[in-house]
Amino acid sequence: MAIASTSLSPNGARAKPWYRHRWPWLLMSGPAVVVVAGVFTAYLAISRSDALVADDYYKQGKAINKDLSRDREAWRLGAEISMRYDPAARALRGKLQMKQAPAAGEEGRTLFLSLVHPTQPAKDRALVVRSAADGSFSLPLDELEQARWRLVAEDASHAWRLHGAWLWPQQRAVDMSAEAYAPAE
Q1: Is the dihedral of CA 53, 129, 165, 170 positive or negative?
Q2: Whole-model pTM?
């Protein structure tokens, strides 16, 4: 004798199967979203390269700390750079001032200006700036991506350099000087 199993609700009507109710689906949706998010996070971690840390970061850090002589040379020369972005002309205008000339009779100065993106090396920009006799310069520059850009300016012979940070677009101007590298007395 076979017994048919039918479930009845308390009021005597035939009960719906579990998958016809909304509560099991609602309770399962939370863990399902977490599983999908975890798979997507794993995909991002595997497919994207990490550009934040160099392979030999320790060696690079030691080399930077050893080579402060260029920063001290910028301090000795009294090097200062003031720059301002002109959105109408889409140009970076600035002025290099030095209290002491690095070489006698040098009319114009060639500068290498590096704009380093904080996380994506592909967005870094290396600019060659030729300043006039009074130190002023102007060069075309498209608007930058919003970030805290690291700036490095150095002369053509790599005898001195200046560092700075530029929070773009909140700051339209930036000043760099070597006063932080004054020798301790």
Answers
A1: negative
A2: 0.60
Query: For residue 184, which phi and psi values (nearest 5 degrees)?
Result: -70, 140
Residue 6 and residue 1: Cα distance in Å, rounded? Answer: 16
Query: Would you call the peptide bond into 169 cis, given omega within 30 degrees of 0 as the criterion?
Result: yes
Report the sign of the C-alpha dihedral through residues 17, 20, 24, 30, in that order.
Answer: positive
Question: What is the Cα–Cα distance from 117 to 124, expressed in whole angstroms?
Answer: 5
**pLDDT tens digits, the chain, 185 residues: what are they?**
555 556 666 676 788 898 899 999 999 999 999 999 999 999 999 998 776 655 666 666 666 666 678 888 888 888 899 999 888 888 889 998 888 766 544 444 788 999 888 888 888 889 898 888 888 898 888 878 888 889 998 888 888 888 888 888 888 889 988 776 666 65
In the sheet that holds 125-131, the strands lie side by side as: 125-131, 109-116, 147-155, 161-168
C-alpha closest to that of 142 among 127, 163, 162:
127
Separation between Cα atoms, residue 141 and residue 90, nearest integer Å:
6
Rounded to the nearest angstrom, the gap between the alpha carbon of residue 105 and the centroid of all alpha carbons in its chain is 39
Two structure tokens written together for 127: 């600019």
